[in-house]
Amino acid sequence: MSGKQLNTTDRVLICGVDTDISDYDIKNELLKTYQGVKRVQRWYYKDETPKDLVQVNFTSPKHAEKFLEDGCFNINNLRCLLTPLEPTMRLKNAIESNNGSNGQSKILTEEQQVTDKILVHDVPTNIADDDLRQELSKVYRGIKHVKRWYFQDESQTPTERVQIDFVSPANTKNILENGFINVGQFSCPVTSLKPSMRLRKKLESDNGSDGQSEILTEEQQVTDKILVHNVPTNIADDDLRKP
Length: 243
Description:
- The protein is of the alpha+beta class.
- It is 27% helix and 27% strand.
- The chain has helices at residues 3-6, 23-31, 61-70, 89-97, 129-137, 170-178, 197-206, 237-241; strands at 11-15, 37-44, 50-58, 72-75, 78-84, 117-120, 143-150, 158-166, 180-183, 186-192.
């Protein structure tokens, strides 16, 4: 494994952060300059006293590398030094799977993923799926389904993660490049999900092609039929036909 691969990480530690500064404020300050901020979490001692260390997880090593290049992070007149952390297990597995390759990294960053599904993190649980869909549809095109994830136990407590399915990977590309979406006053980090079965089959059928993607987005399909989603059930078919 090359030295470059050993230094590849998607996690960074900010040192010397005043303990009075909240994770929320740190995240908002980061998002003013940096893309792909996934999670911000302060470290604590065993007695739950806060440390002056804050961990930042990024959606891809590309964004972490950009952050580390600056060498420090300025907040509230503090100049905080940066140090790389061990990568997440997901990235570590990807690096190990490329061990012994020809040196050309094949690790796909979030923005390079071809998918029609994304997962939005840190979405307040008091926002309903329908309200979230309406708010996001004002800004983002091609939203097909919005579904909040729940804990898989008897409580069925809602999590802060929301899955969004789009009509095509073209709709997710810019979102994944930015690393976050805006939900009202919140900037919520996003990560890619495994594509739908339909898109996966298309990707598999194109495997081994000349490298030119032939994936047709919804707007490129040649068809005389379409499926309209989320139509209220109280609208009759005849009324839908009327101009």
